[in-house]
Amino acid sequence: MTDILALLQPIQNSVSKTTLRQLSRIIFAMIAMTGRVTMLGLSRWTEKGGSYRTMQRFFYTIIPWAQVFWAFFREHLLDRQDTYLLAGDECVVTKAGKQTYGLDYFFSSLRQKAVPGLSFFTLSLVSTKQRRSYPIRVEQMMRTEEEKAESLAKKQAKRTKPAQPKRKPGRPKGSRNKNKADVTLNPELQRIQKMLRSFLATTQGTIHLTYLVLDGHFGNHPAFHMVRQCDLHLVSKLRYDAALHFAYSGPSPKRGPTPRLGEPVDVRKIPDQYLKETQIEDGFDTRTYQV
Fold it and tell me: Nearest-CA neighbor of 89 among 221, 235, 230, 240?
């Protein structure tokens, strides 16, 4: 117990002494206990001063977890000689009932369908030297009633929309060029961007971050600009049908503007001129290309 209190000293400016004492007892119980982690189970594994009422008081207490996570990481885990990546991912926890705060239907990648439960988005710092991930910020994702109504209206419109005749090839007459950087972010990307900016403002001057790693759900144009607006670079997985082209390197045409797009990219037949590194490990041939 004394060792746990010593480790919690960096966060003493973020929480009260009572909350700090309750947290030390809960941590001790979580390390020692077996089975499901519930408030009743925690109260049975704590030492003196960790009753069930204490558990209830603690979980009703408002704690600035983002500040707590960062203070603990900066004091005990930060290696200034290491290179860190910022990674984000959504976690869906199934939950029954009707009274839980934020309960809604969310898509579960494990079950490949929408399930009733809670959704949390987590930002973690990934150490490239130690190959470990440190969760640094967690927020519950909730859709507003306006978002639900808009999503339902889109689904209904898609079902009732009549089949459109196939458009003629080429650019429609009278169309104008658009600035592709002017992207309207959906509510999901707006919430994530708010988390990003808040975290980057907290870490300013302490750690330098360049890349944000997200899964294939965010491998699209709006997510790319959402990340770039935070002065980060996106590392993600593109869709299998993503339209990638090499830059045009041919001669200028005699008439008309010079094309910007060259040959389409075939990820299975990338020219050797873009090959940067080849590694063979455990029978796997890993090739790194840069264009």
Answer: 235
- Whether residue 79 is contained in a domain is answered as no
Domain span at 269: 245-289
What residue type is assigned to position 176 of the chain? Answer: R
> In 3-state terms, what secondary structure has residue 104?
strand
Query: What pLDDT is recorded for position 2?
Result: 64
Long-range contacts of 45-51 (CB under 8 A, 24+ apart): 47/1, 49/21, 49/25, 50/22, 50/25, 50/26
Token pair recorded at residue 164 = 């459109």
List pLDDT tens digits, range 106-156: 888 888 888 888 999 999 999 999 999 999 999 998 888 888 788 788 888
Indicate the number of domains in the chain. Answer: 2
Strand ranges in 157-248 using DSSP code E only, listed in sequence order:
211-213, 233-235, 245-247
> What is the mean predicted confidence (pLDDT) over 255-261?
87
Residues β-bridged to residue 233: 211
What is the tens place of the pLDDT at every residue in 214-233?
998 898 889 999 999 999 99
- Please indicate, yes or no, if residue 58 is contained in any of the structural domains: yes
Shortest CA distance to 13 belongs to which of 74, 55, 54? 74
Q: Does residue 22 belong to any structural domain of this protein?
A: yes
| 140 lies in some domain | no
